[in-house]
Amino acid sequence: MTEFTMATDADGVATITWDTPGKSMNVMSLEGFSELDGLIDKALADDAVKGVIVTSGKEGSFAGGMDLNIIAKMKDSVGDNPAKGLFDGVMATHKILRKIERGGMDAKNKGGKPICAALPGTALGIGLEIPLACHHIIAADNPKAKIGLPEIMVGIFPGMGGTTRLSWKMGAMAASPLLLEGKLNNPKRAKSAGVVDEVVAPEELLAKAKEWVLSEPKIVKPWDEKGYKIPGGAPYHPAGFMTFVGANAMVNGKTKGVFPAAKALLSAVYEGMQVPFDTALKIEARWFTNVLMNPSSTAMIRSLFINKEALEKGANRPDVPDQKVKKLGVIGAGMMGAGIALVSAQAGIEVVLIDQKQEAADRGKAYSESYMDKGIARKKATPEKKEQLLNRITATTDYAALAGADLIIEAVFEDVGVKAAVTKEVLAAVGPDCIFATNTSTLPITELAKAADNAEQFIGIHFFSPVEKMLLVEIIKGKQTGDRAVAKALDFVRQIRKTPIVVNDARFFYANRCIIPYINEGIRLVKEGVEPTLVENAAKLLGMPLGPLQLVDETSIDLGVKIAKATRAAMGDDYPDGEVDEVLFWMADEGRLGRKTSAGFYAYDEKGKRQGLWDGLEARYPVSDAQPELSEVQHRLLFAQVLEAVRALEEGVLEDIREGDVGAILGWGFAPWSGGPFGWLDILGAERAVELTEALAKKHGARFATPDLLREIAASGGGFYDRFGTGSDAKAA
């Protein structure tokens, strides 16, 4: 398989074109690196070649980065000394890019051939690290293109020279948003930031690159010349020192010390700036190897790249014909319905948004208008795009407008009777082949399907709020839901560019089944006299985005009360959360319903901005003199979620371990560094997890009882991914 080709024109300009077969966007493989290396050697050795252009054969993009499937397997392919094998492999890559950077110059920086990167569009990861090694970077003026180094988002950092080159080129302060936050820019912003050198019209890209190559430019990189001073100062200079003091504080403030890649990246930059450039590349390679050897990076790559991509491509889609949605009906124009209408219209789908009153339907459509206005103000959208989007949304009270719809999403009040009435009324207005989906977070799909004429065409689609921001969509199969309904839901989620997980019908499905115990455990701790600040910070030090008390404020306390009452009515004497209800019901009676009323577990100022924890909480539930160890609080908060994930897999609510981990990270932010609940258990070790849960159950009750499946995994001596795999074997037995 040929990934790189080279052609030399009559003027002596060799153009190396990257075009990965069978891929819509270039991704780098080990074979690709070898081909690129050989072509560079050939060009530098050919006296007829005056210079080189490196570009892409893909329309609108240069490269999407490294094939992370390869990185995920690297440790297993290097024998008994994986760290040495990884380091040697990374250094071999550095050697290739350094060869490009030197361009054939001698030790005195004489001779050499100019090498220009011509980027037709998106350049990510290694797709930017290669251009950074070139002598000049020209990007096509493609507003949709994204240029940057997003590796930090999947648990690693730019380890093929990007970290060192960008920080030496721009200075640590200017490079930090690109490196530590994975910030992506369009070409013009990339030029303003100093990442690329020129932005030209797409049709002029190769001509401008050739013009630069033939202009006899100076090609020595500044760090290869004597006396080069890194912008902003090196760490041993006062200005540079203060940069790293601030950067260290920022990294620890954002990551709470649980994301190893961020600390490793900062160390690579700090140490690398105090030595010669080639030594800095070795330091970067060592820290990159350190991160790749950390089980956290393996877990993050697996969940946030490999498994997430597999689910988005339909790993668990039934084998039925394409079910792409052409016309969507959304019933209920409240916050959830309005958000569903917005993301659907953004995807080019015709939407009919219905509510009981025209004013309510119009307000729902106005949500999209307001969203687009904000985009226009930030120059992320145009008035033309706003008009096109709004033209796709019809706001009405007339069910007849649903004629021709192939998917309905009902998003009305969470009440079985109300939903049943709406279901019957809608189905009377649509064709017999229309799939009906209910957006619900708690109500049983099998029960709601009784209102439908054909339960095979009835399914649950659980969106998370706010719809336009949340990446996960939970698809719930009732007992009679058919394959076409599942495929329709999956194809729709793909259209709106979300990540789907498919689960079976059960109380709270999967996400809420795990979220609610997390919130409840936090409230229990407060009632027991544990310092509320300890509860919140214990969660954040685990990598949870929100502590349980802040989370219930965000979702609203009265919603928690409604869920508690409904659950108690359904479970009767088996209901386990009476202690939690005492706190929640008291808060509701006090009128403290969370952020929406600017009063909850937290205090808020007159503008609704969250302040500290509400002091009335301690007055009602005094803090005990003896406080538990941080680790005990953390174990309670984590196992409250993780044990429910295991039980969901054990009971068949989850059918695929990948969906459990991806859904947890995207749905409620479960400690991304861990790769998800099952990833965390594999890092911890099942045997250790059994020890901890037995101790917790003995001290705090049956909610921490060890599931039989966890005991089985511990007895096997392996982990959940050893048992259930990562591909076709990922499904529960």
CATH superfamily of the largest domain: 2-enoyl-CoA Hydratase, Chain A, domain 1
What is the total domain count?
A: 3
Main sheet strand line-up: 14-13-12-15-16-17-18-19
Measure the end-to-end span: 37 Å
* Count of runs of 4 or more consecutive helical residues: 30
Mean pLDDT: 92
Low-confidence stretches: none
Helix content: 40-55%
Strand fraction: 5-15%
Describe the overall structure.
The protein has 733 residues and is α/β, with parallel strands linked by helices. It has 3 domains: 4-303, 2-enoyl-CoA Hydratase, Chain A, domain 1, CATH 3.90.226; 327-504, Rossmann fold, CATH 3.40.50; 507-733, N-(1-d-carboxylethyl)-l-norvaline Dehydrogenase, domain 2, CATH 1.10.1040. Helices cover 49% and strands 12% of the residues. The chain is built from 30 helices and 21 strands. The strands form 5 sheets. An 8-stranded mixed sheet has the order 14-13-12-15-16-17-18-19, sandwiched between helices. It has a 6-stranded mixed sheet with strand order 1-2-4-7-9-11, with helices on both faces. The chain has a 3-stranded parallel sheet with strand order 5-8-10.
